[in-house]
Amino acid sequence: MMRFALAGNPNSGKTTLFNGLTGSTAHVGNWPGVTVDKKEGTYKKCPEPIAIVDLPGIYSLSPYTPEEVISRNFILDEKPDCVINIVDATNLERNLYLSTQILEIDVPMVIALNMIDEVEKSGDLLEAKKLEEKIGVPVVEISALKGRGLDELMKRAYEASQNPRKGRTVLEGTSIVHLIGDCKIALEGQKVDNALFHAVKLVELDELEVKAHPDSARMVEEFKKTFEDDTFGCDFDAIIADARYKYITKNYSSALVKKDKSDVLTRSDKIDRVLTHKFWGIPIFLVILFALFHLTFSENLLFLGAALPEGWVALEGTVLEGVFGDGGINSPGVVLFNLLDLATSSLGGVISDAMVGAEVAEWAVGLVCDGMLGGVFAVLSFLPQILLLFLFFSILEDSGYMARVAFILDRIFRKFGLSGRAFMPMIMGFGCSVPAMVNTRTLADEKERIATIRVIPFFSCGAKLPILTAIAGGIGLTFGLPHTDLITYGMYVVGIVVAICAVLIMRSTTMKGEVPPFIMELPTYHAPQFKNLMIHLWDKAKHFVQKAFTIILASTIVIWFISHFSWSWTYLPDEQINDSILAGVGKLLQPLFTPLGFGSQIGAFGWVFVVAAITGLIAKENVIATFGTLAGCITAGFVADESLEGIDAVASMIGATEIGVPALIAFIVFNMLTIPCFAAVATAKAELGKKKFNMTLVFWVVTSYVVASMFYLVGQWWWTMFIFLAVWALLFALVILNNKGKIDLDKVNPKRLIKQFRRK
Ligand code: GDP
Ligand code: MG
User: Which residues contact 574 (CB under 8 A, 6 or more apart)?
Assistant: First the structure.
């Protein structure tokens, strides 16, 4: 099958075009660096089917980050039949910089002038024909978003792919053209493919190239000693970049008629004046974040609670009583949660009644109702809140706001040894650690990347949300505490704070390194695309539900069996659960968790917390699913009603074990910070390499253990706080002393700075 590659700057619309051509639903984000690995799909409307490959965004073919290497190698080594170079027409000058480099490769190419709708809206006039004449490859105007011009683009690309194209360079008139020619001849002598392209990169003394062709590189170095350009001395790199830009300006300016708008601020500029304000930017972000969490978790919307008249919802006595709140208005997230909870518990009731009515054996009723349904429903009921939170984040991302947040946070991140770029993977971590860890490939500094991968699980993911909410809810139900949503927020904050401290320590001890300058183009704001949002949500929902009915279901069945059979494999009724295999294992490990509050000190059923934490290593939802599965046997008598969904299951566990609040908080903290689920562990392993990965496992275990026991001890005996404060102060003092004068986190390698500016 023929293969066309999509190459272009980050955020130029490659994935949108990819989805439009192939009918896929890959993630589109108004954020540079969303696609970090290549993806393939098929276009069917040409005379023969064509594989379309979506590549990570690149500014130039001199790679700085792992994702950029992926794109470059694909174009050079895999020899696609055509490269579709997608160009953001609202940003021609910068985008064509890459085009002039692809032009040097011996590969058929067409330029897709994307976002033509934006150009028209701004009143500018762009003539593709003129540009085509100047550049010498087909140029097609398209709008990937509106689906305009796609067939024309593919028609031209198909035509182009039928004939080979020889690379040509735009550096003809420069002072180094002879040097490039000599290098090219030398490389051709060595039978190197794409000799022209490699020759130019050699003259730039591109790192990869110098490594690949050391002999020719020496030739360039020799030549350099005798060379002097009027403006740039012997900085070949600069001469070439300058020549490319000169060529671009000369040729595209005749194709573009700009409407005069020197005195109007664009809408995005106006919004940015407020949202990226020097002082207000961060407070505004925090308020927005709080609002999102409030809309998802609060049972007392806008804190109106006390102001509401008694019986504000006229639903008393109906099944819907309490769904919309009692004592305060429930947030949309909680309302949806309650509705689903109502549905699943009635369904569970119907099924168990039917089974009992049909006189099914007692153990089978237990397995299906307590074991399977109890576990799966306990997890599923959190789906609405996960989706809502995810929807809010998608809106922020698609509108272009998240890119601004990275920008305003860069100043603060820098103090911790990170660049603003690390913000995106972290925010993605709230959804799922797996894509978040992959996304760290956008970070240029390897050590920054390692440190970021390690702390990503601390940004509590969707699967951990049931743990947070169910335990917070259980605490509220049992101890009569109001505002359990504040416990949930608090736990998110704990994760973030621990992540910051960990990064700070790592970046000034084992993971020292320069923080690359953060230069990112801010995308224009636009209204979030409904279709995009729905695609994101659908993906998330599908994944979550699939997981609930596969991994989680399988785990709950296993848990049920090993909690109802003894070592001699005889069936045990509910009351004898303490003699089961599961209990045996749990009790064996229990002492380990004594410093965390859920070890030897809690009652007969205390082992349940230990096994729940262990099942969480498979999937974090399992923690609550395990409570759901076991609650049926343990609790008879501790909860008023039959429903054993998440929160009630936890409340009943609290009743049965008499565990205290500090230990429960420590339990959340431990689960949040410890080794993440299977999938995240596998991803970390793939991204980190073996040695770093092993250290990372140790790091997760130690961090979770230490921080969780700190929470327990301080909660139980408040004065221990002073001991911890002293230890932490000492630790930080040591780190600072150790680094005094040695490193400066703000330090930036000047050469790199120039290069990064140049690619803008
Ligand atoms: P990628 O990073 O190159 O893969 O870019 P994406 O496909 O993720 O798109 C980046 C942003 O540009 C998204 O917000 C898209 O909705 C938007 N976008 C893509 N194509 C067009 C277009 O033709 N017109 C407009 N106005 N926006 C577009
Ligand atoms: Mg993309």
Answer: 366, 564, 632, 633, 634, 636
Q: Ligand 2: distance of its center to the CA of 687 in Å?
A: 20
β-sheet bridge partners, residue 51: 3, 42
For residue 16, give the ligand 1 atom closest to its CA: 7
Which atom of ligand 1 is the closest one to the Cα of 146? Answer: 23
Query: CA 54 → CA 98, 164, 413, distances in Å?
Result: 16, 22, 31
Considering the entire predicted model, what is its pTM?
A: 0.73
Ligand with the closest atom to the CA of 88: 1
Quick one: pLDDT at residue 346? Answer: 86
DSSP category for residue 552: I
Residue tagged 């074991």 (tokens): 371
What confidence category does residue 231 fall into, taking pLDDT thresholds of 50, 70 and 90?
low
CA dist 202 and 409 (Å) reads 37
Sequence-distant (≥ 6) Cβ neighbours of residue 749 within 8 angstroms? 514, 516
Q: Which residues surround ligand 2, an ion (CB under 5 A)?
A: 15, 34-35
User: Ligand 1 centroid to 13 CA: how many Å?
Assistant: 4
Residue nearest to atom 12 of ligand 1 (CA): 13
Determine the atom of ligand 1 nearest the C-alpha atom of 114.
23
Testing ligand 1's pocket by substitution, the residue of 6, 27, 28 carrying the most ligand atoms inside 8 A of its CB is 28
Vertex 91 angle, CA 89 and 94, to 5°: 120
Distance 727 CA to ligand 2 centre (A): 46
CB neighbour list of residue 164: distance below 8 Å, 6 or more residues apart: 106, 108
For the domain made up of 1-264, give the CATH fold.
Answer: Rossmann fold (3.40.50)
Of the candidates 615, 567, 553, the residue with the CA atom closest to the CA atom of residue 589: 615
- Summarize pLDDT for 434-473 with one digit per residue, the tens: 888 988 887 878 899 999 999 999 999 988 999 999 999 8
Average pLDDT score over residue span 564-573: 87
Which of the 8 DSSP states describes residue 604? T
- Straight-line distance from the first to the last Cα atom of the chain, in angstroms, rounded to the nearest whole number: 36
Pick from 516, 514, 611: which is nearest to 562 by CA? 611
Of all protein residues, the one whose alpha carbon is nearest to atom 17 of ligand 1 is 13
Could you say which ligand is closest to the alpha carbon of residue 37? 2
Please tell me the distance between residue 508's alpha carbon and the centre of ligand 2 in angstroms.
33
Domain boundaries, the chain: 1-264
Give me the chain's average pLDDT, please.
85
Burial of 265 (0-12, 13-18, 19+ CB in 10 A): exposed
What local confidence, expressed as pLDDT, does residue 75 receive? 92
Mean pLDDT for the stretch of residues 669-678:
94
- Spacing, Cα 16 to ligand 1 middle (Å): 6
**Between these two residues, 40 and 698, which has the higher pLDDT value?**
698
Using a 6 Å CB cutoff, which residues line ligand 1? 8, 10-16, 28-30, 34-35, 57, 114-115, 117-118, 143-145, 398, 529
